[in-house]
Amino acid sequence: MKRKIIFSLFLFFYQFAGAWGISEETLLDLSQEQMMHRSLATLHELLHENTDNAKGKYRPKEKSPLHLGRLGLTLDGELSKTSGVSKLALSLYPREEYVPRYTDISRLLKAFHKNAEKIYGIPSNHLATAMTVAIVGGWTAYTGLEFKNEWIKPLFHQLDRVMRMDEAITQASVSKKVHMHQLLAGMGLIFTAEVENLKSMGNDARSRRLREMGGKYLKALLGVPPDKIAFSSSGMKFK
């Protein structure tokens, strides 16, 4: 039942996915932009065997500088900054489809902001949440499986810990943080929506292509092959 609840939001999302195509070149371009302000060395140090010895202080009761509050949002939940939405719409689709795709992605993100905290129990407008969604989306596309409810919070807290130790992230401008959030969360939602869409279509060739794309995206984000990434109620590990 919990697994159904955790993906109820994404079941709502997939109606917007349509025939969205994702090229390998686009994925690598987007993932490189998203990695621009992350420390892969710190992430690897944290997630290998000596997790407890990772450098840097982690204060779970302290408000994270990755928490964007209402940055990029208006009081009624609309998106006030949309550079990330524009980047996705321009990168993933033909230019003549820009307006409807921009609208679709905006709707995905607005629904995510409205519902994610209720479903996941973690703040929606948070860079670690956005990275969590990106990883979940890539993993779901690669495996075709549902991401278990009990894996969400541990993964979020790991990412919050490692990303808050990177000053390039924490000291980034408001516009850059909002842009990063939209790219990460948007790609994760698009991947997951496409998985749900393909379940009803039974298109084996497209499913294989999506698996390939999900694997490449995960490797670009995390620096390891997707089959070397494992999740549990203790969080993410690299095998």
Could you give the topology of this structure?
Blueprint: H1 2-6, H2 8-13, H3 24-35, H4 40-47, H5 83-92, H6 98-120, H7 127-143, H8 149-164, H9 167-170, H10 174-201, H11 204-222, E1 229-232, E2 235-238
Antiparallel strand pairs: 1-2
Describe the structure.
The protein has 239 residues and is mainly alpha-helical. The chain has one domain (2-54, 63-238). Helices cover 62% and strands 3% of the residues. The protein has 11 helices and 2 strands. α5 (83-92) crosses α10. The two termini are 29 Å apart.
What is this structure, in a nutshell?
Helices cover 62% and strands 3% of the residues. It is mostly helical and 239 residues long. It is globular.
Name the features.
239 residues; mainly alpha; two-stranded antiparallel ribbon
Tell me the β content. under 5%
Largest beta sheet: strand ordering: 1-2
Structural class: mainly alpha
How many domains in all?
1
Mean pLDDT: 77
Task: Report helical residue fraction.
Answer: 55-70%
Gyration radius (Cα, Å) is 17 Å
Shape: globular
Q: Tell me the major beta sheet.
A: 2 strands, antiparallel
Low-confidence stretches: 1-21, 35-46, 48-61
* Strand count: 2
Count of alpha and pi helical runs = 11
**SSE order in H/E notation?**
HHHHHHHHHHHEE
Distance between the termini: 29 Å
